[in-house]
Design a protein that fits this description.
Length: 167
């Protein structure tokens, strides 16, 4: 099995700035590389950096580009790392792409942080992609959800289900 990982940006890929002009973080190389090097995966994979944007900067034109790109790739299993602010919006925009199982994930703290949730969320996405059928899903906060049945809680920031998710 081969999994395609697509970086779109977001907190999961943020790193300390390479300049000394403030404390703003920069989106750098895909965190997926570092996480996968720690787990020694038993599958082949490819990592593509499609965007390096904060999710609030991702446009519908970017989403359309992502959808077209996915339709040109041969991989059936795809994990997309994305910023959490508009992750659900992008997942809904993609909808179901015939022949593809797509799982979106991200992190609330950069993978570079010791207490980041990046490893857990990516691990959840990997477990999910191995058992899910065709469709688009979200793997966050220990839950696997379909985009239409989840939301990001405005108080806690966690992704929550609105009803039984995978029925």
């Amino acid at each position: 099995m081969k999994i395609l990982f697509i970086q779109t940006g977001g907190t999961i890929d943020k790193d300390y700035p390479k300049t000394d002009q403030g404390f703003a973080f920069e989106i750098t190389e895909p965190a997926v590389h570092r996480i996968l090097s720690r787990i020694q995966p038993a599958f082949t994979f490819d990592v593509v950096s499609l965007f390096k944007k904060d999710s609030q900067e991702i446009t519908n034109a970017d989403r359309a580009q992502l959808k077209v790109y996915l339709s040109t790739r041969p991989e059936q299993k795809v994990v997309i790392t994305h910023g959490t602010d508009t992750l659900i919006q992008t997942a809904k925009f993609l909808g179901t792409i015939p022949g593809k199982t797509i799982v979106f994930t991200g992190a609330f703290k950069p993978e570079r942080f010791k207490d980041s949730d990046a490893d857990v969320n990516l691990g959840l996405a990997l477990g999910a992609i191995n058992v899910l059928e065709e469709g688009t899903f979200i793997a966050m906060n220990g839950l696997v959800m379909i985009p239409e049945n989840c939301e990001k809680d405005p108080v806690s920031g966690q992704f929550i289900t609105l009803k039984d998710n995978l029925e």
